[in-house]
Description:
The chain contains eight helices and eleven strands. With about 230 residues, the chain is α+β, with helices and mostly antiparallel strands. It is elongated.
Amino acid sequence: xxxxxxxxxxxxxxxxxxxxxxxxxxxxxxxxxxxxxxxxxxxxxxxxxxxxxxxxxxxxxxxxxxxxxxxxxxxxxxxxxxxxxxxxxxxxxxxxxxxxxxxxxxxxxxxxxxxxxxxxxxxxxxxxxxxxxxxxxxxxxxxxxxxxxxxxxxxxxxxxxxxxxxxxxxxxxxxxxxxxxxxxxxxxxxxxxxxxxxxxxxxxxxxxxxxxxxxxxxxxxxxxxxxxxxxxxx
Length: 234
């Protein structure tokens, strides 16, 4: 069954559809106290010296704490002391150092995870590059997820979106690819290719692997995030 990937969820973690998140693990945000699917939250960890750092890959040892706030809300929580109060409760210590640059550190870490994931999909042959190749593959129904750089032209997006709809048999639906919070320079450097403006994932499993970190990044930046009903997030 074909499912559009361009349906959106609000960035408010309280509004995530219950049917979609029923089977997904949840975590509690230390700032708001609300619970939400883990894919929408960012894990923070503490170094042995008490420095609070982003753990975007969720691999740091020891106790972690989760935040579901977007970047602007995180900045406000740092300024008001609300973040430190929440982290002190979570880590059971007040001896914490929260960098003033933590919001940017989180954003940079999340961007790196997305770009690294795209690089891995390229190496295993699941990432499709090149406008003509994407268009041909999309029309043949071989594209699970279509993405555009933030600075892609509207004309270029429309042409590939149309090809994607044809291949997915969703003509007339208005379905569109996902506009990434990454420009062509960031994509080109990360993938080692010139002028990467559009990219596509070849199957649902690859799309799910990319959507997992992409959803988290877009949520943190306050963007609406792509629905993942068509490709279950692992």
